């Protein structure tokens, strides 16, 4: 009986590990791919939108390349930003990515207060949703909700 339980646990651990990392994109156990975001103000109007390629690193880290604001407003008018993030895999038993997501986008002003946009949400398959907060210089404060979707592969 204990031998059977041990085998079941071993198979479950193996299936769980196989679902983490690797793969070719959302739905395959990682967050890798090109994503498109829409950040909405509390009144439902669009505050910001951007696209970026997400790449899951070791552990929970996520790197961002090809980051581009489609609508940046005055708070992110320059393309000089840094992006950092994390992704916590909560489970992948059916081949779908799910877990927590965090991202920070900061301006890189050398002699002024930087604007910092923080996103916190959850990943469910090819959609990330949650809330955002902007803190920074004059007129660069706010909050709302966001939705990020994967872009079709070409």
What series of H and E elements makes up the topology?
HEEEEEEEE
The main sheet comes to: 8 strands, antiparallel, barrel
> How much is the radius of gyration in Å?
18 Å
Low-pLDDT segments, ≥5 res: 1-28
Domain tally: 1
Derived structural class = mainly beta
Average pLDDT value?
78
Strand proportion, as a percent range, falls in: over 45%
- Global shape: globular
Number of strands: 8
Helix content: 10-25%
Report on this structure.
- This protein is mainly beta and 154 residues long.
- It has one domain.
- It contains 1 helix and 8 strands.
- Strands 1-2-3-4-5-6-7-8 form an 8-stranded antiparallel beta barrel.
- Strand 2 (46-56) and strand 3 form a beta hairpin.
- The radius of gyration is 18 Å and the shape is globular.
- Residues 1-28 have low confidence and may be disordered.
In short:
This protein has 154 residues and is mostly beta strands.
Notable traits:
154 residues, mainly beta, disordered N terminus
Give the helices and strands, then pairings:
Layout: H1 2-19, E1 33-41, E2 46-56, E3 61-71, E4 81-89, E5 98-107, E6 116-124, E7 127-135, E8 142-150
Antiparallel strand pairs: 1-2, 1-8, 2-3, 3-4, 4-5, 5-6, 6-7, 7-8
